[in-house]
Specification:
- The protein has 443 residues and is of the alpha/beta class.
- The chain has two domains: 7-162 and 326-396, D-Maltodextrin-Binding Protein, domain 2; 165-324, D-Maltodextrin-Binding Protein, domain 2 (3-Layer(aba) Sandwich), CATH 3.40.190.
- It is built from 17 helices and 15 strands.
- This is ABC transporter substrate-binding protein.
- One of its GO terms (molecular function) is maltose binding.
Length: 443
């Protein structure tokens, strides 16, 4: 998926990269614990030849300019390294170029690719660089750091934290007599059912359940405190509380209001467009990320909405705030010709003030909590709420395992669709997911 303005964070799960910053000599101090006297071992400095670092990035348009801006600030801050940026919105092209020895020193990707790139020798482990510079990562959201790891080693740093919140239409709730959004799974199901409006022939006029733009199995599973896989990546966990309740909620709603009627809503309108059902007042609850808030603010969408955490599993208040985190990442190519220079630029970009500028410029939530305190986020719609969601201890991330693409695109997709279409019961679907996932992990 190309990193378009909003599309990079479309949550069926979500991604980023971690880092903490530093400033090179010749640049004023900023109080960052990671500030260094900097410069690449390959660099020159005053009177010497500068070393070059190439950075390819997937973003284009406004986001691409944000990356070019941080590159310029880095180049202006010191006299040892010159960073050259290039927008290459084709991940496969970047991967092939690196494998052929003609790629960039540093590039970005999605955290879901870390395992693959680590196994294939595309990405460089960062432990030695981190240890050498005593690089402080203590203020990164823990779930985002995990996204940069494979087989116990850190290969990438997370830029941001992508996650779902529960958007709700205040008018629809008020008209039905509700003054607050649902907090539990039971309340969500009851309210979604009551808020659904149908025509005489059963067509859905107002979608009560958050089944647009797709069936929210992953968001519900993690919101209910469940997971797909144990953190060590060895055990399938579909048979634990969370996943079954999520699948049951979708199944029951689909059975009551008709799968085809719901799919008709899913095919109506366009995601992140004024015709989107939520923006046009025809969806009561929506699980989506900060890009939805940004789009509505930037496009002057007049909708009285609220934003709350995902509902937790009824009877389990200890699971409140459960969610899944995903990240976008940066990694150094294993065959980089200037590892030290690439690392210096990474540290600069991930310094607290620079990461705030980069993520603030893109309307994203930074993976670093000190960056979250920057005033720029006071101007971004709902940033305060998403930053609060991100710091909950119940936020988890899918572990980076080589089998992740098959787990999501085959096991979950195929068995989930069988239940969504009422071809299997939730119990049968979960049993099949558990069996197939464990077989996959055991390979």
């Amino acid at each position: 998926m190309n990193k378009t303005r909003y599309g990079k964070a479309a949550l069926s799960g979500i991604t980023l990269l971690l880092a903490t910053g530093m400033v090179l000599s010749g640049c004023g101090g900023n109080g960052d614990k990671n500030a260094s006297s900097g410069g690449s071992d390959n660099g020159g400095g005053a009177g010497g030849k500068k070393s070059k670092v190439t950075v390819w990035y997937l973003w284009g348009g406004k986001e691409g300019q944000v990356i070019e801006d941080v590159i310029k600030r880095f180049n202006d801050s010191q006299d040892k390294i010159t960073v050259e940026g290039l927008s290459v919105p084709d991940e496969q092209k970047i991967k092939v170029a690196i494998a052929g020895g003609k790629g960039p020193d540093l590039t970005d990707s999605f955290a879901s690719n870390v395992a693959q790139y680590a196994k294939e020798g595309i990405a460089l482990p960062l432990e030695d660089l981190i240890a050498r510079d005593k690089y402080d990562m203590s203020d990164f959201v823990p779930a985002t750091l995990e996204q940069g790891k494979y087989d116990g080693k850190l290969f990438a740093l997370p830029l941001n934290i992508n996650m779902n919140g529960m958007f709700y239409n205040k008018k629809l709730l008020a008209d039905a007599g509700y003054t607050e959004p649902p907090k539990t799974s039971k309340e969500l199901i009851e309210m979604a059912t009551k808020l659904t409006k149908t025509s005489g022939n059963g067509e859905i006029e107002v979608l009560g359940f958050p089944s647009y733009p797709g069936f929210p199995f992953q968001a519900l599973t993690y919101g209910f405190g469940g997971t797909y896989v144990s953190q060590d990546g060895k055990k399938a966990t579909f048979d634990q509380p969370g996943a079954l309740e999520a699948l049951q909620a979708i199944y029951d709603y689909n059975k009551q209001f008709g799968v085809n009627n719901i799919k008709q809503v899913q095919a109506t309108g366009k995601w992140l467009d004024p015709t989107d059902p939520f923006m046009s007042g025809k969806q009561a609850f929506r699980f989506d990320g900060p890009w939805l808030s940004t789009f509505m603010a930037n496009n002057n969408i007049k909708l009285d909405y609220g934003l709350a955490p995902l509902p937790y599993l009824d009877g389990h208040a200890d699971l409140a705030g459960s969610n899944e985190a995903q990240s976008s990442i940066f990694y150094i190519a294993k065959n980089s010709k200037n590892v030290d220079g690439a690392w210096e630029f990474m540290k600069f970009m991930y310094s607290a003030p620079e990461l705030a500028k980069v993520m603030g410029g893109m309307g994203n939530i930074p993976a670093r909590t000190t960056s979250m305190k920057d005033p720029v986020f006071g101007t971004i719609a709902d940033a305060d709420k998403f930053m609060e969601f991100a710091q909950n201890a119940n936020v988890k991330a899918l572990p980076n395992i080589a089998q992740l693409p098959d787990l999501l695109n085959k096991v979950v997709k195929e068995e989930g669709e069988a239940v969504f279409n009422l071809k299997k019961t939730p119990e049968e679907g979960i049993a099949a997911m558990q069996k197939r996932a464990q077989e996959l992990l055991d390979k």
